[in-house]
Specification:
With 226 residues, this protein is an alpha/beta fold. The chain has a single domain, classed as 3-Layer(aba) Sandwich (Rossmann fold), CATH 3.40.50.12140. The chain has eight helices and seven strands. The chain has a seven-stranded mixed β-sheet. Helix 3 packs across helix 8 and helix 4 packs across helix 5. It is globular and about 40 Å long. The N terminus is likely disordered.
Length: 226
């Protein structure tokens, strides 16, 4: 499997998911980036470019994970996808994946990659439709509050924190699994990534931003160690 990967970094990333002791060594030596996914269909995949930068700076402050806090994006049709152990999708409105993007994303997830999706509002129907193309045999399931992603670094005994109101519903965290491994995590009706952005962007109070950064840290830690 690994010999078919074109990028050594992702070959190492595959080991992260397979062995915790190896993961620790690799995390210490490799600067982790959180790549924003560029997609077609009209949705604003590019919004709030400060979000990932701020999250990774926070991760560097509260963990020993070696990160590269830059805004980086990746096209799902590109082989560059396999250079990232974690990728991130967000936006408002439509997303439309073509056959190449679907095939590439499926291969990425099957071979140890991790996708985090955050509904920035109005994204739910499109993300569910498009990810069904990637794993037509699977469905999103709501993760229980005792799932490890809610305690991988900080403790969230009641599940996701509520960052933005949206439709004033309870926040929900959904997962999609491949061979028993959580490979896609999807946050709905909360929007943590808005809380990662620079304070003046959404004017979230400090306590909301702190909760958003903490749950973001949990996502990064979980993705790199499971």
């Amino acid at each position: 499997m690994i010999k078919n990967m074109k990028y050594i970094f992702f070959a190492l990333a595959l080991l992260i998911f397979a062995n915790e002791s190896i993961a620790q060594k690799i995390v210490e030596k490799s600067a982790i980036k959180l790549a924003r996914v560029k997609y077609s269909g009209g949705g604003d995949w590019y919004n709030d470019p400060s979000a990932e930068v701020n999250l990774l700076k926070y991760v560097a402050k509260v963990t020993n994970i070696n990160v590269d806090p830059v805004y980086d994006y990746v096209d799902l049709a590109s082989d560059n996808l396999f250079a990232y152990p974690i990728i991130f999708i967000t936006g408002h409105g439509n997303m439309n994946l073509n056959e190449v993007e679907v095939s590439n994303l499926r291969a990425y997830l099957q071979n140890g990659g991790f996708l985090y999706v955050d509904d920035d509002y109005g994204f739910d129907e499109f993300i569910r439709r498009e990810l069904t193309k990637v794993f037509p045999e699977n469905k999103f399931v709501e993760l229980p509050f005792n799932h490890g992603i809610y305690s991988s670094h900080f403790k969230f005994p009641n599940g996701l924190p509520k960052i933005h109101e949206h439709d004033d519903k309870a926040p929900q965290g959904f997962g999609m699994f491949y061979n028993g491994r959580l490979c896609i995590y999807y946050t709905y009706e909360t929007n943590p990534s808005d809380g990662w952005a620079d304070p003046e962007v959404h004017k979230d109070p400090p306590e909301k931003r702190e909760m958003a950064l903490k749950i973001g840290t949990n996502i990064i830690v979980w993705a790199l160690t499971n």
